[in-house]
Predict the 3D structure of the following.
Amino acid sequence: MDRGDEGISGIRLKLDQSTMDDQYHHHNQLSVDWRGRYNNKHGGMKAAAFVLGLQTFEIMAIAAVGNNLITYVINEMHFSLSQSANIVTNFIGTIFLLSLLGGFLSDSYLGSFWTMLIFGFVELSGFILLSVQAHLPQLKPPQCDMMKENCQEAKGVKALIFFAALYLVALGSGCVKPNIISHGADQFNKEDPKSSKRLSTYFNAAYFAFSLGELIALTVLVWVQTRSGMDVGFGLSAAAMAMGLFSLICGTLLYSNKPPRGSIFTPFAQVFVAAFLKRKQISPTNAEILHGNFQNITTLANFSTAHKNHLVHTDKFRFLDKACIKAQQGASMIKESPWRLCTVTQVEQVKIILSVIPIFACTIIFNTILAQLQTFSVQQGSAMDNRLTNNFRVPPASLQSIPYMFLIFVVPLYETVFVPLARKITGKESGITPLQRIGAGLFIATFSMVAAALVENKRRVSAVESNKTLSIFWITPQFLIFGLSEMLTAVGMIEFFYKQSLDGMQSFLTAMTYCSYSFGFYLSSLLVSLVNKITSRYSSFGGGWLSENDLNDDRLDLFYWLLAALSVVNFLNYLFWSNWYSYNPSLNSSSGEDLENVNSSKHIGADTVIP
């Protein structure tokens, strides 16, 4: 037998070792129609349009509640300013934290369509219960002016109904959100270059739908809440959610559905267990002997497509490679269970999760800044002159519509002007890489807090020293700056996480982007409490920066400066981790660019983060 025959025999041996794994992996690559039949003709932008309908209506419903919730909690439930801010941030944080549950259920057991449908109705029931409580006086504390009287806050059954309704909305919205993005993105084939290009367009379209929903919520629905009462406003949120579910159901016959693959955590657990059991083994310097390593055989013309979805071996976290070392007894291999022997692809999937955690962590401060725009900035607007004309007043919560008015025009310009221009320069399908987009957003976010601090200082000085009330439009810059920042960071995060080479985990990875929002809002609550506790010790009047219900007695401007400083430190931290991160392409790269990089070097540099 010559060396060529030996090489082919070696390849066949490697293929035989992972036949069962490959059949399972290939099975989960296929898409099915609404009857469960494997069908590659469904999907496309037409199907994704129905998902975008749900995106628009769902964000319309939840934004109308979340962005004006602090006013309702203070004026109707009679909680203090700091308590109310924490209730709102904890509510929104819980929504995003529960997105992990939605992603897990979708990828493991239900599929994205059924997860959205089931939990969409859970969210709808929460809106209805909020509307009923807001409508019936006996379910709320007695009416009272929090600025002038010592009001009785909601307790007992009234508080129970309020929080039950609130967290039904949180559970439903949290499980729906990641699946909206992933189900829409699943309508496009990442392996097809043309379809992959449309996928990038879809992410921008999804953010446009998000901005449109936010704009309608923060203008029309918030205006209705202010004029007609929160009971009518909550009712309109319920109606909007019902319309979103109707849009989702209308696209049923067109969807390309990814079938669930069973517990997505089992393969990860197997890697850690196998690596621990073989912790005393020495990691081989030659990666070719690792179980299921196909890195050097991708040039074969007859290589089965079922094997082309494997990940290439990388040198990071090499202690995990021990999970791929095959046990030997004499000259023969020992047959081992999946809990003692894993494939290179399994190990590389775990490495990807570990590699994206620092990127994920760097977006938490960004979302802490977002929390201020939905809480303290609304109260900031309440302390300003909100008259547009003699007969019309701008609801403070509607200030958050300003960036979305701006983005309704900016997002299409970004897609039609900036992306094609940048694509010619960089050669990237999305113009700039998602990591570059995230970094630009994090940098710009700092200036939002700088603007907020300067304006709050001016407002406070005018109110305390001159007894003058500034116009509410003075706080427009902080919303506009953050709107641009959010467009860059939010879409960059979603595209970055979705495009990771983890088949069958798109919903869960998308949920990680929302989980960042959760940690950001929880951090906001922690910061408020911590800042109050620390500053009250050194305050001459005994109160902290944010301890009073009157902003004229607080020092919100100093809190904004603190967040601006944290944002600068966070951006510098992001620069380090984004440079450290490396992208692991699967062996099915449509362009072939990644495979060339792999064959020339085992390390993929930061400039090849996304193909």
Observations:
- The CA atoms of residues 538 and 544 lie 8 Å apart.
- Residues 1-28, 296-308, 587-611 have pLDDT under 50 and may be disordered.
- The first strand starts at residue 328 and ends at 329.
- Residues 193-228 form the longest helix (36 residues).
